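Annex B. Sample input.
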Amino acid sequence: MELKEIGKIKVEGESMFLQIYEPYRKGTRGLKEFSHIDILWWFDRCDNEESRRVLEIPKPYQKAPDTLGVFATRSPQRPNPIALSVVQILYMDEEQGRIYVTFIDALDGSSILDLKPYTPSLDRVNEPEVPSWCSHWPDCYEKSGEFNWEEEFLF
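Annex B, continued. Sample output.
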């Protein structure tokens, strides 16, 4: 299996953008017509043997059970440190290969593996069921920015 880094997540002051490498810029054609994108990126700061062996996480959230399986969390510690984030496109500079986005929960310099347009017909679930310990979390992306996540996390 071979993955190719197609760009980097960049944080410069208040600006966040996806810097797409030149050979992959043609692949963004038509993307600016979408309001949101799914970004698959690499948790590179957790890419080590110890983190890749983690299969259970001790109580990561305030109301969570004492232990959760890694696949029931969004923890960066996992067998394959792949992250998924949904972001809103603010604007694109196609010539420079930059896609300016709203907040993304990634660190500056994180590797981008793939981009996909967010399409409600494939990505949205009208009535998802979640465990009671996270049922008080925001019910949509737009409300997540106002939620105090720091009070939820125990890591």
